[in-house]
Amino acid sequence: MSDAGQSTNPLRWSGLPCEIRESLTGKLAGLWQSPTDAAAFDSWSLDKQQAVLLVLGRLQAKGLWHLVRRIANVYGEGGVGIQFLAWPMIESTLSRRKDFTRLFANHRDTSGGFYEKNRDEAVLHFLFQEGDPRQWYVHFDHYSPVHSILGALKMFDQFTLGIEEEFQIIDPETRELRSHVAEILEEGRMLLGEQIKPEMIQSMVEVGTGICRNIQEARTDITRLRSIISGLANKNGLAIAAASTHPISRWQDQKIFDDERYELLVQELQTVARSLLIFGLHVHVGMADRERAIHIMNAARYFLPHVLALSTSSPFWMGHNTGLKSYRTE
After folding, report:
1. What is the DSSP string of 255-323?
2. Could you tell me the pLDDT band of residue 246, with boundaries at 50, 70 and 90?
3. Dihedral-angle region of residue 9 (phi above 0 means left; psi in -120 to 50 means alpha; beta otherwise)
4. Is the peptide bond before 133 cis (omega within 30 degrees of 0)?
C-alpha cells in the first residue's frame, strides 16, 4: 500500500492481496453499471480506490465491516467515505457499542447517525437516511465533537474571519440616496484607517473588520465600525442603511467616485457598470489548508440557496415591486 500511495496510477483488482479481495467480494458489483467486483474497482480513479481501502481497514479494525451489505457510492478526493446498503442489525449493533454515540451525529438532511468515541482525529461518522431501502453513509471527520470540548472547537482554531459591509448613504428626511461619501471618509479615515473605503458610487460606504480569530471578535469589531460610521453620517446630516438594493433611488442619478479604477470600469462596461446599484455583506473565511478549503466550498454549495433565502432584502427596484425577494441576484 505504501508504494501504491506514492503512485498516481490506479490500482488493479488482480494486484490486491487475497484477503482484501475476499472482503470486497459481493460488495462492488453493480456499482456504476459494473458487472463484477473487479470491473467496478478497476474503473475507479486512484482516490476512490484508496478511499474504499481506508474505510475497509478501519471498519475491519473496529469489527464492523460485516455490516456493509453492498457499496452504493465512493467518495475519494472530496472527502473519504462510502454510501452503502447495510444489513438490518447495523443500528442495534452501533447502539450497543460503547465506542460509538448518537451525540452530535445527526445532520439536518439525515435521519440519524453515530460518532466514534475516544478518538480525536480521523473519526468514523455514520449517517443514515430513511428510504426504501434505508441509505447509510460512513466517512472520516477531521476532528471529533464528542471526544472533548477542545476537540469540537479544534477545527475552528484553524480558520479566521473577516467581514465587509457596504452601506447606503441616505437623506434621513427623503430616504433617497445621497452622493456624500467624501464627507464621511474625511473623518472616517482618521478614525478607522484602512477599515473604511469608498466604492464605485458615492452614495455607498464600505467598512471591514480586521482579521478575527472567532465570531466574537468579528462581532465586537463590526459593532464598533457600525457605531462610528453611523455617528459620522449623523454629524453630516445623513444616515446609513443596510439593504441589497435601494427601493426608490435611480441608478442614473448616482455619481461615480473619482478614482481611475472606477472610471476605467465605467468606460469599458458603460451602463452595465453604472446600473450596478447594489450593496452587499461579505464574510471571508481564511483557511491555511487550500485543499480543505476546496472541500469545504464544495460542501457549502448545497446551502447557498438556503442562505440566499434567509438573507433576501431587495424586492424593490427604482420604486417598483419586482415580484422577486432578491432582485439583487438578477
Report:
1. PBPS-HHHHHHHHHHTHHHHT-----EEEEEEES-HHHHHHHHHHHGGGHHHHHHHH--B-EETTEE-S
2. very high
3. beta
4. yes
Q: Which of 122, 147, 172 is the last residue of a domain?
A: 147
Q: Which residues contact 21 (CB under 8 A, 6 or more apart)?
A: 13, 37
Q: What is the average pLDDT value for the chain, to the nearest integer? A: 87
Domain shared by 116 and 221, yes or no: no
Q: What is the distance between the alpha carbons of residues 258 and 262, in angstroms, rounded to a whole number?
A: 7
Question: pLDDT value at position 161?
Answer: 92
Residues 318-325, mean pLDDT to the nearest whole number: 92
Please state, in angstroms and rounded to a whole number, the distance separating the CA atoms of residues 166 and 199: 8
CB neighbours of 193 closer than 8 A, spacing ≥ 6? none
| 6 and 140 share one domain | yes
**Taken in order 267, 272, 278, 282, is the CA torsion positive or negative?**
negative
144 band by pLDDT with thresholds 50, 70 and 90 = low
The pTM (predicted TM-score) of the whole model is 0.55
The domain spanning residue 228 has which CATH number?
3.30.590.20
What's the rounded mean pLDDT across residues 123-144? 85
As beta bridge partners, residue 121 has: 143
Q: What are the backbone dihedrals phi and psi of residue 250, each rounded to the nearest 5 degrees, phi first?
A: -100, 140
What range does the domain containing 289 cover? 158-329
**Is it the case that residue 103 has pLDDT exceeding 90?**
no
User: Which ranges in 97-180 belong to alpha helices (H)?
Assistant: 149-154
